[in-house]
# Entry
Amino acid sequence: MSEETKALESMIGEEYKYGFTTDVEYEDFPKGISEDIIRELSSRKEEPEWMLEFRLKSYRAWLEMEEPEWFNATYTKPDFENLLYYSAPKKRPSLDSLDDVDPNIRETYEKLGIPLEEQKMLAGVAVDAVFDSVSVFTSFKEKLAEAGVIFCSISEAIKEHPDLVKKYMGSVIPARDNFYAALNSAVFSDGSFCYIPKNTACPMELSTYFRINNMESGQFERTLIIAEEGASVSYLEGCTAPMYDENQLHAAVVELIALDHAEIKYSTIQNWYSGDENGKGGIYNFVTKRGICKGDHSKISWTQLETGSAVTLKYPSVILQGDHSIGEFYSVAVTTKKQQADTGTKMIHLGKNTRSTIISKGISAGESNNSYRGEVKIGKKATGSKNYSVCDSMLIGQSCGAHTFPYISSENASSSVEHEATTSRVGEEQIFYLMQRGISEQDAISMIINGFVKDVLKELPLEFAVEANKLLDIKLEGSVG
Amino acid sequence: MLEIRNLHAVVEGEELEILKGVNLTVNKGEIHAIMGPNGSGKSTLSKVVSGHPEYEVTEGTILFEGEDITEMDADERAHLGLFLAFQYPVEVPGITNKTLLREAYNTIARANEREELDPLEFEDYLVSKLEIIEMKDEFLNRSINTGFSGGEKKKNEIFQMAVLNPRLSFLDETDSGLDIDALKVVSDGVNKIASPENAIVMITHYQRLLNYIKPDFVHVMINGKIVKSGDISLAEELEANGYDQMQKELA
# Structure
């Protein structure tokens, strides 16, 4: 077995081995949420007045909103009063190198043994490691600075690049967009900020790690990526988290802005703790992700492999405002045991000759429930626009569920929308068929799954793609029969 | 080549015996036919011999080329040269016929320390086999059995047999659902593949298939056992008098 597989197996396997918490002293911060707490939070982060205003406005909006209940999933509602909205490791370093990181935190990362991180360190991929609520480590700043690329934590960006943040934060996902976006806008802790200047291709793939470490800590990450005219960037998001009895909430907001001829590729491998045998203790992943193709001929691609969390609700979307802009969504969502996922995308065509492609592959096994919810909207002025959607579900075994909720609306007669959907089942008969032809059981399952998802995985950056395949194999081991 | 001794088998987890003491010997170069009424256990026999996990052997042994394969995994039996042409071939989406065959061929070659073929070599090899069963090459790039008619699925089984070149093949009701033309094509294919080096066991209800693929031996299976063996004239007798009559005679 290769080192990588070993690492992945220990990361993901039947028994989630990361049932530990790091003994890092946490700053004293009260639980619950209120205007006072938000002021305190903003003050500890040393934020300017306008940022506090943004938070307070969002908080007030949140108070007027109701928690949404239309998802095809059942779960215990988060207890907002009992969450800790701020957690930072006591020693807050300004880091130039790994040596400056709190040794406990470093040990945590070593224990996690994330191969990607190591590889990135060696291969020159910048890593912005978010430890709970505060960015701990940012690397390779110099190389990026040479290219004029800004890649730092949101907290830092608020201080160093306030104009950019003011201009773009909340422009794609306003606080009032939805309940969780409002909450995030009020109490977001940290996240990545990325700015690519005109006509610049970001010289390396950018990546973020973070980890929910404190029990009952709500993780509210906020990411903002801006690509100026002619700029391009590929961003990788991948994370892991330890075991708890209390469900943990993760309500991130990710905003992408692409101007004329710019391109943003956002890839995610998500494998958070999904709960024990009874589905207890897993992460709630309620994320709002949206990109706007603001400029003409711009392009935004969302590529994701979602395999973790107890409950996943996310719909990475693209608003195709610029003429000739392109939106893409490639997704593999895997649910096993008792996981539930209600995920999908929205492609909103506003500009002329805009294109969108949706390829969604859902795999359900065990007693899980996997729903795809997609919306394709062609606006009145979106002349000559096209959408192509493929939504395939694969059921493994007899007790799982797969659902599709497509919403298509078109107000422009010159546009075309194609939607294809298939459902198939993998069972003992398929496995036996392949075995009778000489293929081992393990390889048979692997072949079937990989064949099913290859249209999506080929869109992932190469290093992610290899991990993705292995992650799938491991996740689905033993799920047939 | 194949020796089945007193084989008893049940559906895994159940008590009702489906095979109640089957005895059968098949040698190199022979073509056998096993006939019997519905529920006699004919198809089950082919599944048990190929190692289907749904069944459990409760007594007896299966020897293949002298090796006891009774407890062996299905893929290992395939490596030894065993092939089953399924009665109801399943669809396996996401994997093309070509990929399946290449993986299968190379896995079996590897297990037997024979040379594997790279994709280009394999492509040539595949194409050379297409004419055996009159298949068009566009089938190769389709997902396994996806969108195939019943007849096409059966042809695909024989095509796979041609490609994998097994030592012993069980053809489980290969003729069912085939029209005359398809039957001729399939039979021609089987006849081309049959050689003094391999052996074939055909499972069928009807005598018709045996007009096209001439068996050396015919066995009658009733109620989980092979009750009578003979040559082609036995098949003709069955055709004339039916299974009931034979059962009465034997009682």
